[in-house]
Structure formats: C-alpha cells, structure tokens
Design brief:
The protein has 24 helices and 18 strands. The chain is α+β, with helices and mostly antiparallel strands.
Length: about 675
C-alpha cells in the first residue's frame, strides 16, 4: 500500500477494528471477509466483476497515491499502465508528477502475492487488464492518445491549453481580454511582452523608456518628501545616503549634479503618454508630440541609471516637485500599475515554455535584457522569451516576499464551468526581501528553487523553517494586525475575478472535450494594497507532500476533485469539500458550420507601364460601363472542402452576449 493510503490527513475515521475499517473502505463486505470458505482471490473477483459492471475501472500514470486510494475506497479498480509512453512527461510545476515505477507485468506465484492483504488490488488489476479504463489521471495529456478516447472515458486534461498555461500564451491572450469581458488586464496581470519579434521588442523598449521617465518623477517626489522629513512614496526610498537632512546634503555634495532639464524631459515624455492614453494626440501640435531621438533616449536612460544607483542627484529637484506630483497623480488615475512599478524599473525575463523557475532572471538595464535574448541562438520557433514587469512593491510578511498558490478546477468549457478552491497556501522566500540584490533566490518563491537554499540567518524566526503557510494561517496573521476583513473583501474575490476573466479569454482556444476536467494551480503575488496580481497558471500542479502544509492541502484538493468529477455525477447535492462553484455560463448551442458562399466582386485593374498624362475631363465609354464584374469564389464556398467547427471570437461573443462574467462577489455561484 502506498504511504498516502496508510496515513490519511483529512478524512473522518471509522470506529472499530482498523483491519475491518480498511476492508470496508475497499468495498469488501463483512460477510465476505468473515467467511472462511472464500479466499482472497474470490473476493477480488467478485469486487472486480461489480466494478466492471458499474464501469469503475481507472488508470493512473504518475505518483498520485491520494487519487488511487480515494478511487479504491469508492469501489474502483485500477488497470495498470503497462507501456512506456512515447513522450516522457515533465511536470508543469515544481516537482510535480514524478512517474511511478512500473509494476512488473504478471507475477508467477499468485499465492505468494496474496500473502499480504494490500496485494488484493494487484490481483484485481490483473483481472481488468483487458478492460477499458473509464477514468484516467495522468501527469500530461500526451501520455495517451487523447483523440482515441471514447466519450465514456474521463480524462484529467484538456487539449490546447497553452493559451493560458504557458508564459507566452498567457502574455499574448491577456491582450484580448477587453473583447470578451469589461475588464482591464492591467488591473490584475503585470504587463508582459513576448521578445520573439522585432515589433514586440520595440513595444517593450517603449514601455521601459516610459517607465524610466515616470521613475524620474517618482525620484523627485520621494527625494523632496525625504528632505522635508516625510515618508517617501509608499515607503520606497531611493535618495542617496541615509540619516538626517544635513548628512544627506553632505552626501549630495560628493555626487554628480544633474540638470533640471532631465526632469523637464521626463515630464515631456509623461505628458505625451497621458495624451496617448486619453486619445488627445490628434488635436495637439506637431512640436509637442515630437518624440525623443535615440541619442536623447540614451542620454535620458544613462542619467536615470546614475540617479538610481546613487551616483548623481538633481540639485533643483524642489523646483519640479509640484508638477511631478501632479503628473504622477494623473498617471496613477489611468494606469493601475503605477504603484507596482516602483522606482527601479526591474523586469523579470522568463523562457516562454519552461517551468519551475528555470532560467528566470531579474534585470533593470534594457540593454542587458536585449543582449540576453539576442545571445540565444535558437531558431525563431524555439527562441521564445517573455519579459514581464516585476512587482517592486509586494506585500511582505516579516520583511520576506511570498506568493500564493491557488487551485481551481474546470469541468466544462461549454458551458464554461469553474470551481474555485477555498484553501490555498503561501510560499516564502528563504531570503529577506531587497531590491538592491536581483538574485532569483530573493525574488522567486518557487519551492523548486527555494528548497535548495538555506534560510537566511537574518530572516525572521516567526516564519516556519519549511517556508509555507496555509491561507488560514495567513488570515490569522491579518486578523492580529487589524486587517482580518481584507481576505474576504479584497484578496479572495479579486483572485476569483482574475481566474474567471482569464478562462473566458482562453475558452475559444481550448479543445472543449466533454467528460474531461482539469485541475490548475494559479500563482498570485499581493501588492502592498492587498490587490492580487496573477503571475502564471500551471497545468499538472505539484501534489508532492514536500512540507506539512502541502501534505495536508494537496491531499485535500485531490480528494475534493474526485468528489466534484466523480461523486457529483451520481448525486448533484453531494459533498464537494472545499470547492465552490465560481461560475457556470448558460449553455451555448454551437450549430454546425456549413460555410458561406463568399465571393469578391470588382473590376480587375492593371498598373500602367508608364506614367500617364493627367486627364482633366473623363467620359467613360459605354463599353467600359458594360464590363462584367470579376467574381472570385472563396475557397470555403467550393464543393468537397472539409469544414470544421467555428472558432471565431466574434461568433462566440454574439452567442454569449448574455453570459458576461460579472464583477466582484457576484461571481460566486453565478449561474448555479
């Protein structure tokens, strides 16, 4: 028996003899076990025949002892995987899905195998080796032939989920969000750019430069507040030196003085940005909209670097305080990411298709970022990087950064049906938070990275050595600090909105196979205002019991997943554990697509071989007016063309116009 079967973390125990209890859980009646005439093989055969009749045959590929134990208790029999898949799967998340060792195919001596009670399951598995499994749980969808499954077979994966389970897919598809729901992706997803093409690189460069300009304004405001003895912007300090005002002035006397023209240029850039957001660019003069030249941008960026690293200061910053403060207030009102931008313009660079924090780095120099991407000599198809704005102002617990792993379950894509898990867990960094050091050990909270590091000796002893909290423990922490209501009023509903909106965008891209389901793990980081920011979504999230926290919660979420996808098919009012229905759209009838008889009508025009003289008065001859229009038939209108289901977002939107995702707490139980 697997260790997870022996030690249950979250289920109610039955009274009586433990051995009888285990037999009851396996579906073996007391009458059968008490009869001396029935040996274990007959018991196994009777239970197997019952499972075959009820279509309770399952197969698992991967290390999922909780799933196996849960199904066995419900009378299911396992059909072992007796093949080596063509693609050895890697988990999408930290440490997830380590393949189990294959069971030996057949045992010569059955009686030896039956000496242990646990081996009755091996006998039952042999008895169903030629049966079709009706429930499949695998690490990756590619382990089996997805399209060969019958409609009766359940699978824990959907096809074509890369639109939200890969970094590049999420980056690209979040831009389409306003076409699907009335929501701004910039309010919950840090802006992100692919670095696969020159146009995308230019978009990132423009953003980096705009952030340079706004950071200069923030420096002026923060420096002036510090000089007046006030706290800097939201606690962020970037002024050179430390101590009292006199010490600061002495330190400034040793630094390079920068002209106030730097602030004027930054203000010019910010005003142009505001006009762009407010769509005022059409009515302004050409001089005011003129952008900076490459040399001017380079000079502005270099001065910003020296200002940021304490090598220079702006002596006349107090003269620009008012206009900088006013501009920042305007930018904040239209850009929800102004707060998380901070002052240092740090970006996080990620390989688009890798997981578990591999090869992720933080940088704050644009030339180094572009050099890193250019140095990768992979083909254009494989050379996929994304760069995302780093959250410089995260909420800290005892001066330590953390993120939140939040599970959700999709059981249908039409109608879109999402279940949200009420429990989640926090993952802490082993190091104290600092923006002075861009080491991944400080800024990435993935357990696959942090488990190889020792906890910093200067880190608070109030944090657990295994670097995880349950969300319940986090709520207790907030309660003690007088912010107990913020979880239910801000954090939890905002995470639900983010997931619902993201799934709505992905709906047109996923293969909506009926009788499939999938459990996902979303990662969030909280800002200092407690607003959650979605970082990524993982398929096959780790279920490894690496700490006391994951040992408890990962077992619970697997058991509760079985309750939703198996038990609820029989009893719609059954116990579904900690899952709650997040949203369920009204069903949409997608009628077969037969194609349209499309054609293009017009008169063919050939370019003149030489320049023709200007004709002032033109009288068209009747022969020209009698020309028959040219008709070009669309390929879709031609006969014998294979036609597929529609994937147009506009067609989906017209049919789902009454199924918009509501905002706020209205998401809970929507459509249920």
């Amino acid at each position: 028996m697997e260790p997870g079967e022996r030690k249950r973390l979250s289920s109610a125990s039955l009274e009586g003899d433990p051995r009888e209890e285990n037999k009851l859980k396996r579906g073996i009646s007391q009458d059968l076990t008490s009869s001396p005439r029935l040996d274990r093989y007959k018991i196994a055969r009777q239970l197997t025949e019952k499972a075959i009749k009820e279509k309770k045959i399952f197969s698992i590929y991967g290390h999922y002892p909780v799933i196996r134990a849960t199904l066995r208790r419900k009378g299911w029999v396992e059909k072992k995987f007796h093949f080596l898949p063509k693609v050895i799967p890697n988990a999408d998340d930290d440490g997830a899905g380590v393949p189990e060792h294959k069971c030996a195919e057949g045992k010569e001596n059955q009686e030896e195998a039956l000496e242990k009670t646990d081996d009755i399951h091996d006998v039952m598995s042999r008895l169903v080796k030629n049966e079709m499994p009706y429930f499949l749980w695998t690490i990756k969808r590619d382990v089996i032939d997805y399209h060969s499954l019958s409609c009766d077979q359940m699978l824990n994966h959907y096809g074509k989920t890369a639109s939200f389970t890969t970094k590049i897919g999420l980056c690209v598809n979040m831009r389409s969000l306003p076409w699907y729901v009335q929501a701004n992706p910039d309010s919950f997803f840090p802006r992100c750019y692919g670095l696969c093409t020159e146009s995308e690189k230019q978009e990132f460069l423009d953003d980096f430069r705009r952030t340079v300009a706004s950071s200069i304004l923030k420096w002026v405001v923060s420096h002036q507040n510090y000089s007046r003895g006030k706290p800097s912007i939201k606690g962020e300090a970037c002024e050179p030196g430390s101590g009292n005002k006199k010490a600061s002035e002495n330190a400034e006397s040793k630094l390079t003085g920068l002209s106030g023209q730097l602030v004027d240029t930054a203000c010019q850039v910010c005003r142009a940005y505001l006009r762009q957001l407010e769509h005022e660019g059409i009515d302004v003069s050409e001089d005011s909209t003129r952008g900076l030249t490459e040399d001017e941008w380079k000079d502005l960026t270099e001065q910003y670097y020296s200002l940021l690293h304490g090598e220079a200061f702006i002596s006349t910053s107090r003269n620009h305080f008012s206009q900088c403060q006013a501009l920042l207030n305007k930018i904040t009102s239209v850009n929800p990411q102004t707060e998380i931008d901070g002052l240092r313009n740090i970006w996080i660079i990620k390989p688009a298709a890798k997981s578990r924090g591999r090869d992720i780095v933080c940088m704050n120099r644009v030339e180094e970022i572009l050099e890193l991407v250019a140095a990768d000599h992979l083909s254009a198809k494989d050379n996929k990087w994304v760069v995302q704005k780093y959250i410089e102002t995260p909420l800290l617990i005892y001066d330590t950064k953390f993120d939140i792993r939040q599970w959700f379950l999709v059981t249908d894509w039409n109608p879109l049906t999402i279940w949200f898990y009420k429990e989640s867990y926090l993952r802490f960094s082993t190091q104290r938070f600092s923006l002075e050091n861009l080491d991944s050990a400080i800024h990435l909270c993935n357990n696959s990275i942090q488990k190889h590091l020792k906890n910093d000796k200067d880190r608070s002893p109030l944090l657990p050595y295994y670097n995880m909290w349950t969300s319940t423990r986090f709520r207790e922490y907030l309660q003690k600090r007088g912010r107990g209501a913020v979880w239910a009023s801000v954090i939890y509903p905002a995470m639900k909105r983010a997931i619902a909106n993201t799934m709505r965008v992905a709906q047109d891209h996923v293969e909506p196979r009926k009788n499939s389901f999938e459990l996902y793990g979303a990662d969030f980081i909280l800002g200092r205002d407690f607003q959650p920011w979605l970082i990524e979504i993982n398929s096959s999230p780790t279920m490894h019991a690496s700490t006391p926290v994951t040992a408890q919660l990962c077992a619970q979420v697997q058991e509760d997943t079985i309750k939703v996808v198996v038990d609820r098919k029989v009893d719609r009012n059954c116990n579904i554990g900690n899952f709650e229905l997040l949203c369920r759209q009204p069903a949409v009838d997608l009628s077969p697509f037969h194609g349209s008889d499309l054609c293009v009508e017009g008169v063919s025009v050939r370019r003149a071989k030489k320049q023709m003289p200007t004709i002032s008065n033109v009288n068209f001859s009747s022969s020209l007016l009698d020309i028959q229009p040219l008709k070009v038939r669309c390929p879709l209108a031609m006969p014998n063309q294979p036609l597929g289901p529609p994937h147009s977002a506009l067609q989906q939107d017209s049919k789902l116009k009454d199924a918009k995702i509501p905002s706020g707490h209205d998401l809970v139980g929507w459509g249920s």
